[in-house]
Amino acid sequence: MDPQRYREIFDRVQDIIYVRDMDGVILDINEAGARFFGIAKDELIGRTLHRSSDDEQARSLRATNDLLLRDGLDRSTVELRTSTGEARVVESTTTLFRDDNGKPLGAYGVMRDVTQAIELQRFLAADNDRKTRELEDARSVHRALLPKQVPRHPHAEIAVDLRSAAEVAGDYYDFGVGDDGALTIAMGDATGHGLKAGIVGATAKSYFQTLSKGSAPRAILEAMSAAVRNLGIPSMYMCCMLARIHERQASIVGAGMPPFFLRRKNGRSVERIEVPGTPLGLRATAFDGTVIDLDPGTTMLLFSDGLPELLDDDDRELGYDAIESCLADAAEHPADEILSRVLALADRWSGGREAADDVTVMVVRGV
Questions:
Q1: CATH code for the domain of 246
Q2: Which of 24-28, 35-39, 223-227 has the lowest average pLDDT?
Q3: Per the domain annotation, does 187 fall within a domain?
Q4: Residue 287 has what DSSP assignment?
Q5: Residue 220 class from Cβ within 10 Å (0-12 exposed, 13-18 middle, 19+ buried)?
Q6: Domain of 16: which CATH number?
């Protein structure tokens, strides 16, 4: 390369490039190095950066020379001070060079100022720690929303499981027992995940627990919908389904949840029951419903859309047919066994792949 062209490139590089002897005397340095130290190139050449034989820079030089003599190369991160006294962190790569007889003559090195990158890493780490603490608090809130135990009912056994796909789940389920012994079951799925979904879930729970003891299921959904709407969180809604079990009847009202499966006592097939309705939080509401006889052996399988939307390794959805077949094969078993079989189906299908959405599964079986 033409020496003049080499010199132009040498001086235009923004990293510090220098050549020194084994005593640390600078033999050459580019313009970036001169700017960093605030000293003209002509003044830097022929001098060292240390003031005594035992200051910090001199000790660093000796340590670097030891590594160079052993390995021929040294990569390290060091702190240097600019001409204004500002401490800067630089990544340094230093390579030993020798004469024709192998005698060490000195080293050439490249130093890159990484102070801003280090500060950014520290900021991101601190911000991540803060978010982790906030999300842990949100997880605690969500765990507190879920019932501590499944209530007993003289005519139904219930098994339920919620698997969260994120730090704070969008799914929600709950139980309320009225003064007349009627059991009201709620299953909800807020849009998205995270803190906003947790807020929607907490709002839904507060209204459900207040109203489930006496209000009709449709009236409960109306109140819950107004509460979610009044939160004023853009594009946040909740699909929901309520099932009130009184004696041996289940009255079910829907607000945008997927269909549920029903296998009647001694039935040979599984029915797919649609309960259409608008999600909670919309201004215009319409909630459809149905009533079924919950005879001993009749089984309802309720689930959030995270279950049929589970993906396998080929990005195929689990779908409804496989769930329907699973219930058909397991319906003669107790509720907890049916739940276990559905969850095992989900695990086999996903093959350990992380779910993109929360998965809630509930089995209600007449006894």
A1: 3.60.40.10
A2: 35-39
A3: yes
A4: B
A5: buried
A6: 3.30.450.20
* Nearest CA among 102, 127, 97, 131 for reference residue 28: 97
The larger pLDDT score, comparing residue 143 to residue 172, is at: 172
Q: Would you say residue 344 has pLDDT above 90? A: yes
Q: Is 35 exposed, middle or buried (0-12, 13-18, 19+ CB in 10 A)?
A: middle
Dihedral, CA of residue 272, residue 273, residue 275 and residue 279, to nearest 10: -30
Task: Record the pTM.
Answer: 0.66
List, in order, residues 6 or more apart from 169 with CB less than 8 Å away: 142, 162, 193, 197, 198, 201, 358
Domain shared by 78 and 185, yes or no: no
Domain boundary among 113, 132, 162: 113
Q: How confident is the model at residue 181 (pLDDT cuts 50, 70, 90)?
A: confident
Domain that holds residue 319: 146-366
The answer to whether residue 138 sits within a structural domain is no
Amino acid at 205: K
Q: Is residue 120 in a domain?
A: no
Q: Find the mean pLDDT for residues 209-215.
A: 89
Confirm if 240 and 188 have CB atoms less than 8 A apart. yes
> What's the total number of domains in the chain?
2
Which pLDDT score is estimated for 180?
A: 85
